[in-house]
Specification:
- There is one protein chain.
- The protein is α+β, with helices and mostly antiparallel strands and 233 residues long.
- Helices cover 38% and strands 19% of the residues.
- The chain has 8 helices and 8 strands.
- It is globular and about 50 Å long.
Length: 233
């Protein structure tokens, strides 16, 4: 648990144990997308093409076919709400030419913002034994996202979005369970267990908390609620 204002750690338990990030990976994918928006490389109307490689990613995904495109604004929503693996890969290929090159940028950015124990190998968080992180590193990423991109952070609080005329609903129950929760991301693979990063603001207090390796979504969410209740009024 980290205080957003001071960056001070309020609580830690095995916070530097190496874990698999699963879809928390997409927080860094979006960090680089937000940088591209900030630099003018893309804008929210830019159309992102979906390659056969992107379309072929395992679920969770939107299910676009090779050759189809998606605008940046909807693509970001697809990642924050649906955790769409196909769209994460499409962004990686568009911004860096290949997912491998994009993952190298992700790792470099991790080092630049103080995530010393994190290595990325893909943009989605699908399991790769070499793709690792820690709870402390993910808290630092959440903190950096909030500080550097306040104008984009609200994407992480979305509960649903519309694509191709259909409404897609997310599954981040912390947004409803925890008073003041305003983001950010869930993650799960069999290897990682159930992961969650949550940002909470109540009055003047603003914290970010991380739970990695939950045994179930319910157990993870309950642990998050306990952590926050003990450290924010």
């Amino acid at each position: 648990v980290i205080d957003m204002s001071s960056g001070k750690e309020l609580y830690g338990y095995s916070q530097n144990a190496v874990r698999y990030p699963a879809s928390l990976t997409k927080m860094m994918t979006l960090y680089l997308v937000f940088e591209a928006l900030q630099s003018g490389q893309i804008d929210k109307t830019t159309m992102i093409p979906v390659s056969a490689n992107a379309a072929g990613q395992a679920p969770s995904k939107i299910g676009l076919k090779p050759g189809q495109t998606i605008d940046v604004d909807t693509a970001i929503r697809a990642i924050t709400v649906k955790s769409a693996n196909d769209i994460a890969v499409a962004f990686a290929e568009y911004l860096a030419g290949s997912e491998e090159a994009f993952a190298a940028r992700m790792t470099a950015k991790a080092r630049a913002i103080g995530m010393g124990r994190t290595t990325f190998r893909n943009a989605s968080g699908l399991h790769d034994p070499a793709q690792v992180t820690t709870a402390e590193d993910m808290a630092r990423l959440g903190l950096s996202l909030r500080r550097k991109f306040p104008q984009h952070f609200s994407y992480f609080s979305l509960k649903q979005f519309t694509v191709a005329g259909r409404t897609v609903t997310g599954h981040n129950k912390a947004l409803d369970m925890i008073a003041g929760a305003n983001g950010i991301k869930t993650g799960y693979t069999k290897a990682s267990g159930f992961n969650l990063v949550t940002s909470v603001r109540r009055g003047p207090r603003h914290i970010v908390a991380v739970v990695l390796g939950g045994m179930s979504a319910g157990q993870r969410d309950a642990r998050m609620r306990e952590l926050i209740a003990a450290r924010i009024v």
